Amino acid sequence: MFLGYAIAFVLAFVLTLLLLIWAAPRRYQVKVSRRLPAPPERVWAYVSEPERYAYWFPYVASCKADGGPPQGVGQRRHLQLDRNGVLGQRDDEVTVWNEGRRIEMDQKNEQTHGRAVGWRDAHAEYHLEPDGDGTRVTGVLWFYGRGLLGGVFSLLSFRKRHEKDMRLALTHLEKRLREETYPA
Questions:
Q1: pLDDT, tens digit, for every residue of 74-118?
Q2: Measured between alpha carbons, how far is residue 30 from residues 95, 101, 144, 179 in Å?
Q3: What is the pTM of this model?
């Protein structure tokens, strides 16, 4: 009797997993928008300058220019990541640069503990629009799950994690904009 229940449970688990793998989207999107109390040129400084990226993204320990032009398409950045003691790194490359309005970056080779993360081919976009005396910032992150289970984990947890990170980053950016006068 117990063996019959065990077999039924395993079959139900496997069928559920196969259904999740089949139903999981291939590409995921996280989109977060927030109005910030600063003009676009102040917000742009934080988004476009590599050394300022770590000031508003809470899990970015450092971000340094790593080749390409200092501004514009082709700018490369190397990021050191720290997610509550879990260390990692990633390389970003700017693919779209619309001065003061929009920047897009391919996020490549993200690793934690020296191993690839569960998502791949991430692409981040930041859109800035004047909004009264402030700026509406919209952050969009696109990514794919890595492998069969990466798609399932993306569906179940990675998407929520990235959305939480983006919301927290925009909260930190608002705090920085209220505290600092950069650029003067």
A1: 999 999 999 888 899 999 999 999 999 999 999 998 899 888 887
A2: 19, 19, 12, 28
A3: 0.80
Query: Which residue reads 């629009």 in tokens?
Result: 129
d(Cα 119, Cα 161) in Å, to the nearest integer? 12
Give Dmax over CA atoms of the chain in angstroms. Answer: 75
Would you state the torsion angle of the CA atoms of residues 181, 62, 66, 110, taken in this order, to the nearest 10 degrees? -130
| One-letter-per-residue 3-state SS of 65-103 | ECCCCCCCCCCEEEEEEEECCEEEEEEEEEEEEECCCEE
pLDDT tens figures, 5-22? 888 777 777 777 666 555
Q: Which domains does the chain show, CATH number per domain? A: 26-179 (3.30.530.20)
Between CA 87 and CA 80 the distance in angstroms is 7
- Start-to-end CA distance of the chain, whole Å, equals 75
Q: How big is the chain, counted in residues?
A: 184
